[in-house]
Amino acid sequence: MSTPEQLRYSKEHEWLSAVEDGVATVGITEFAADALGDVVFVQLPETGSTVSAGETCGELESTKSVSDLYSPVTGEVTEVNQNVVDDPALVNSAPYDAGWLFRVRLDPAAGEPADLLSAAEYTDFTSE
Amino acid sequence: MGRALPPLTMPFWSEPMTEDTPDAPRAPRTPRTAHAPRTTALGAVHRALGATMTDFAGWSMPLRYGSERAEHQAVRTAAGLFDLSHMGEVTVEGPAAGDLLDHALVGRLGALRVGRARYTMICDANGGILDDLIVYRLADDTYLVVANAANAATVLAALTERGAGFDANVRDDRDAYALLAVQGPASPAILGRLTDADLPGLKYYTGLPGTVAGRRALIARTGYTGEDGFELFCAPGDAEPLWHALTEAGRDDGLVPCGLACRDTLRLEAGMPLYGNELTTATTPFDAGLGRVVKLDKPGDFVGRGPLEAAAARAASHPPRTLVGLIARGRRVPRSGYPVVDASGAVIGEVTSGAPSPTLGRPIAMAYVSPEHAAPGTEGVGVDIRGTVEPHDVVALPFYARAT
User: Which residue is closest to B333 within chain A, CA to CA?
Assistant: First the structure.
């Protein structure tokens, strides 16, 4: 199970990239994608909308279940991955790469949540 | 001329097993607790294949090996190999075995010809469905009853109790069998490489004892996928060699191991009910649109007859609800328990099973709805998917039927 070192992770199984020019990328982890099985539909937040750390902002439908998508940070959505909307299987095949979900301009007032996990911490969390 | 069929006068397990399994080994029953689901005789095979396992009715079963949608497609276009050893087998044998089953079940099993199988149900005294079953008549005085894993203990207890006074024995054979299924259009060719049994002569819903890859097995042309295919009941000690032989024989035909996730989407597309979803003790076979399995004209009394006669009359005049198919116009998936609503938002029914259909490319569902909304093409039907009503088309079941 791959858990890239350079990312940070939420306990809702989202990953957050390093922040560049105030913007970070969000996706779901390989652990989550494996647990869901084949993802057939993703509903993402709209570009320009505001998402809040720990709040739901979309959903992922797989064969057996539907899961809420949580934002790991607060800010404005600057871009959504249209490729993954058109081909949700990218979430399974490349969860950290082509299967990214949306980008957020972090709200400076909110800052970054303190409870995001490192790769090692997330690995421990998922093996509990 | 095809080969002569092996004689069906003796149950196949009464014949000597292969050299290395002299007595059809029976694994000791491990305690059933929430923390220790049982593993089948193929547990090590599933681990070696990297299966994602799931707890199901007290068993640890493969959910999928890779992509469940790829497994689903393999069964529709090539072949899939399933471990179904969690299913519960009960043998009923003796001179009055047929009479016992005619009393205990809703079907007329006494009239079943040797070598044939029948889909039937066992109901409680109120006509509520305790389980749906496949019954194989292996010999004049021998039947094999196959129950769902979750209901096997209930079925065994009910048959035992209802069988008192009949000159027949009800035997718990849950641990006597492993069950493998090879399903899909390539399955006759694959199985044909491993057996001398007359597969072309083995019609749908028949079963005969035979030899597969040198192992004794009941070879049945049954399944739960909507495709052609076979189910192989064998000694647990033979399950692993049979699995490997089938895997090897099907390699060039695209056979893949398949888990319960695709089994569910395959049966849903085929419009087949699942106990616990479409079928419950609160449902009679008539309410489920399966009244044809109840043989009210059979001689003698049977458990549930009175209430089932009433249910038949009710279904004919004013059915309380009808099982229908729904196809989503959107991409969100109707799931079991979601309300079905009409154009005004009033609740008119409930989804019993739902999933994204790999074959249709859209979400599909089975649902019980009020009869006035049950006609295919009924306008204005929606499913309340977590607070948002999504439009659906009402269709006749099944969603998928293979070309014959």
Answer: A61
The domains of chain A are located at 8-108
Q: Which domains does chain B have, with CATH numbers?
A: 12-84+177-269 (3.30.1360.120), 86-161+284-318 (3.30.70.1400), 321-404 (2.40.30.110)
Please identify among residues 74-113 of chain A the ones whose CB lies closer than 8 Å to any CB of chain B. 92
User: Is B365 touching A (CB cutoff 8 A)?
Assistant: no
3-state secondary structure of A62: strand
CATH code for A8-108?
A: 2.40.50.100
From CA B376, how far away is CA B239, in angstroms rounded? 44
Q: Which of A34, A38, A66 sits opposite B333 (nearest CB)?
A: A66
| From A37, A61, A65, residue closest to B332, measured CB to CB | A61
Q: What does the pLDDT look like over B82-106, one tens digit per residue?
A: 999 999 999 999 999 999 999 999 9
Comparing CB atoms, the residue among B261, B331, B332 nearest residue A63 is B261
Between the CA of residue B121 and those of B55, B176, B210, what are the distances in Å? 25, 22, 27
Residues on chain B touching A44 (C-beta within 8 angstroms)? none
Interface check A123 vs B, CB under 8 A? no
The C-alpha atoms of residue B340 and residue B352 are separated, in whole angstroms, by 10
ipTM of the complex: 0.90
> For residue B152, what is the DSSP state?
H
**pLDDT tens digits along B121-173:** 999 999 999 999 999 999 999 999 999 999 999 999 999 999 999 999 999 99
Question: At residue B141, what are phi and psi to the nearest 5 degrees?
Answer: -115, 20
pLDDT score of B6 more than 60: no
Q: Which residue of A has its CA nearest to B65?
A: A37
